[in-house]
Amino acid sequence: MSQRIPVTELTPDFRGRAEEALADGQLRNNFRVAMDSLMTKRANAFPDADEREGLRELGNRIKAGALSRLPDLLEQLEQKLTENGVKVHWAETVEEANSLVHGIIEARKGSQVVKGKSMVSEEMEMNDYLAERGVECLESDMGEYIVQLDNEKPSHIIMPAIHKNARQVSKLFHDKLGEPETEDVNQLIQIGRRTLRRKFMEADVGVSGVNFAIAETGTLLLVENEGNGRMSTTAPPVHIAVTGIEKVVPNLRDVVPLVSLLTRSALGQPITTYVNLISGPRKPDELDGPEEVHLVLLDNGRTGAFADAQMRQTLNCIRCGACMNHCPVYTRVGGHTYGEVYPGPIGKIITPHMAGLDKVPDHPSASSLCGACGEVCPVKIPIPELLQRLRQENVKNPEQTQQVKGGGAKYSRTERWIWRGWQMLNTRPALYRSFLWAATRFRALAPKKAGPWTENHSAPVPARRSLHDLAARHLDQNGGRPS
Amino acid sequence: MSQLFYDAAPNATRVSPEREADRQYPEKPEAVTLFGTCVVDLFFPEAGLDAIRLLEREGVRVHFPKEQSCCGQPAWTSGYRDEAKAVARAQLDILDRSGLPVVVPSGSCAGMFRHHYPALFADEPDTLKRVEALAERTFELTEFLLKVCRVQLADRGAPSKIALHTSCSARREMNTHLHARELLQQLEGVERIDHDHESECCGFGGTFSVRMPEVSGAMVKDKTRSLIDSGAVEMVTADGGCLMNINGSLEKQKESFRGRHLASFLWERTNGDNAGEVA
User: Which of A283, A304, A325 is the last residue of a domain?
Assistant: First the structure.
């Protein structure tokens, strides 16, 4: 699983990638162990179920309320940030966002960027974009640093290198950095830390993401555990924050429950080690902090989801990763199988708006609709319901659907006719009973192979008599009435 | 509400608290309609018959409209909304004829009536009223026995250890795991053994099992392994889809362990006179 997976080269082959991942025993074990631990941590962080449910409800209402007046809040955010001395930029596409970021770096004649963890910058593939233009962009989050070193993409939105265990990281550091092998996690962290400390001091620009953008005060909130976020946003002379337009919330009061939901759902922490509230560049009387602060607000398909009342709920997401931690599919195939920036249940519902359903046609189907994701989502995104909606959009005639980008990717006249046949069978009682009669009487003729089903199961054999038959006979004998 | 939560993740038994927790139950009716479900009809008819026997023993007359077929779930979860709606409408018409309470020996199909029919018919105000009335009078079998019949089971079987599997939609939409646990608790000779990752999906997911056979297969293999390793002698479940998935996989793996429908298990454990009619 060490191939690079740039989002722009998505191939619609989820099943192929899944098969490879499933055959990798080490990978499956890494995910199973890690996800079990994360589920346990989350459960322990919410010991009181009533409190948890009340908080989820509140989180949902805050996000839904913020989205209901998104344009106004974004305007207010821009105004307040500008007053605070932050330069605000708008980007509809990742190309625009990259070009904006590069422009800012160029204006400072920068050549080295140090980056705090940011999924939006992954969306943009900012590292590659800047590298092609001679700007070195180094990841400073430990997990991101590991995957960058191995030329990989993150496999999880919170823990980018969760697919690797300590032994694999040790080998990587040995191969790439010439460090002696060790499975002591603390030593491994020290190796990364030594490299990164130096880079923070040398960097011309620091890039970060944003967890919540607060409109009323013009504040960018960033949670993190490694201090790399604070270093990236304060040590270099320029700080560029990149984020999606859905991250805006009305005021600081809203942030309290949302941060609690985020850190408890993600890692079971009551709060992260660092909570950064960034409200502008260094002021004349201040001793440190960046000289310039920029915010790039990215759309990248979000307005498409926003336009549809049901799909809009996708934008509630606060990127905690709990949905993937609890997903039985993600746990088995890992993040890279999704072939995109956002894996797991949230990836399945958000990527269609970014890349188009035709780029990820298998995503809506890659779920048993077990509902674990929806149950743990801290802002109550009804993920199974949205997956089902995407399935509907997926099988529509592409000429008749404009509702989701790339809709109709799984349109098949043959499958439509199969379901029409199924409909006929199940709406014509006499036909259905004839089918039951034939299937039970000729059960010996039931096929021994039944497509993909018999790859995992013995062939299904109908019973000797259907329930229709048994019930009729029983109710006749016992005076009940088959009405 | 809090008693609904079992919190030791990853083996937590998860519940959607917004659904079903506050459901009010009526007095036991004189008669009900049994909606058999297509999977039980064709593959596990004896479970449907045992459900009828359990209901009759509680003094409830059972109707079985012969026009019934499938609740529409396969098409609905596959994205074929129009086809699902046509089949749903047919069932609605049939079930509305008597207007009797509807008992379903499958949590996911009961959940389809209660939670997904309203979504299917949201754009038809007149039908929606009928759909909401149907949702109101639909009960999953274990729920009906426990909450409406207030059944008291007398165990007549030999001591046994069993594992309980609950379909995810049954758990999420109907709290079937809680009802089934309570019924099993009434059986003195039966010890219910937890199995590893009990609340995790068995990998069925309807058409998911044929659209994503690799992932689904990995899930059911893990599920069967944990069932076998649990030390239980058999598995019971109140959902035909999971039963077909789990038993089919066990048979393919040439394992002797099997699951069976909870209705059959309950009937066999509590029926003193096994000399009844031959199925």
Answer: A304
Q: Of A235, A270, A304, which closes a domain?
A: A304
The minimum CA-CA distance between B160 and chain A, rounded to whole Å, is: 27
Indicate the angle between helix axes B125-136 and B81-98, nearest 10 degrees. 60
CATH number of the domain bearing residue A90: 3.40.50.10420
Q: Residue A84 pLDDT more than 60?
A: yes
> What pLDDT does residue A360 have?
93
Give residue for tokens 């948890």: A52
Residues ≥6 apart with Cβ < 8 Å to B81: A392, B75, B120
| A107 domain-assigned | yes
Q: Residue A462: its chain B contacts at CB < 8 A?
A: 42-43
CA B44, distance to chain mean position in Å, is 12
Residues in Cβ contact with A362 at an 8 Å cutoff, skipping those fewer than 6 apart: A12, A13, A14, A15, B212
- Selection from B189, B267, B275, B10 nearest residue A35 by Cα: B10
Alpha helices in A8-159 (DSSP H): 14-23, 25-45, 49-68, 70-83, 94-107, 119-124, 126-132, 142-149
B154-158 long-range contacts, CB within 8 A, separation 24+: B154/B270, B155/B186, B155/B187, B155/B188, B155/B189, B155/B190, B155/B269, B155/B270, B156/B269, B156/B270, B156/B271, B156/B272, B157/B187, B157/B189, B157/B190, B157/B268, B157/B269, B157/B270, B158/B189
Q: Are residues A287 and A429 in the same domain?
A: no
Binary contact (B65, A474; C-beta < 8 A): no
User: Can you list the domains of chain B with their CATH numbers?
Assistant: 27-148 (1.20.1050), 160-270 (3.40.50.1860)
With an 8 Å Cβ cutoff, is B220 touching chain A? yes
Quote the minimal CA–CA distance from A321 to chain B in Å.
16
Q: What token pair was written down for B145? A: 């026995």
Q: Is A186's Cβ below 8 Å from some Cβ in B?
A: no
Name which of B205, B206, B213 is nearest A452 (Cβ-Cβ): B213
pLDDT on residue B1: 31
**Closest chain A C-alpha to B2 CA, distance in angstroms:** 6
Q: Are A147 and A122 in contact (CB under 8 A)?
A: no
Total domains in the fold of chain A: 2
How many degrees, rounded to 5, is the angle at CA B76 between CA B75 and CA B81?
Answer: 90
User: Considering the domain boundaries, does residue A358 fall inside one?
Assistant: no
What distance in Å separates the CA atoms of residue A473 and residue A364, rounded to the nearest whole number? 43
Residue of B nearest to A422 (CA): B83
In chain B, which among 145-164 make CB contacts under 8 A with chain A?
none
The per-residue pLDDT of chain A, averaged, comes to: 93
Residue A246 carries which DSSP code? G
Is B178 an 8 Å CB contact of chain A?
no
In chain B the first and final C-alpha atoms are separated, in Å, by 42
CB contact under 8 A, A460 and B248: yes
Same domain, A300 and A423: no
Q: How far apart are CA A464 and CA A451, in angstroms?
A: 23
Q: What is the pLDDT of residues A8-38, one digit of tens each?
A: 444 458 999 999 999 999 999 999 999 999 9
- Residue A108 sits in which domain range? 65-304
* Residue that wins the pLDDT comparison between A49 and B155: B155
pLDDT tens for A136-154 read 999 999 999 999 999 999 9
Q: If you count DSSP H runs as helices and E runs as strands, how many of each does chain A have, helices first?
A: 22, 10
Q: For residues A480 and B32, give the distance between their C-alpha atoms in angstroms, rounded to a whole number.
A: 11
The confidence score (pLDDT) of residue B20 equals 65
Which residues are registered as beta bridge partners of A389?
none
From chain B, the residues in CB contact with A481 under 8 A are 61, 63
| Tokens 């990248």 found at | A300
pTM listed for this prediction: 0.94
| Residue carrying structure tokens 């000729």 | A442
Chain A environment of B240 (Cβ under 8 Å):
none
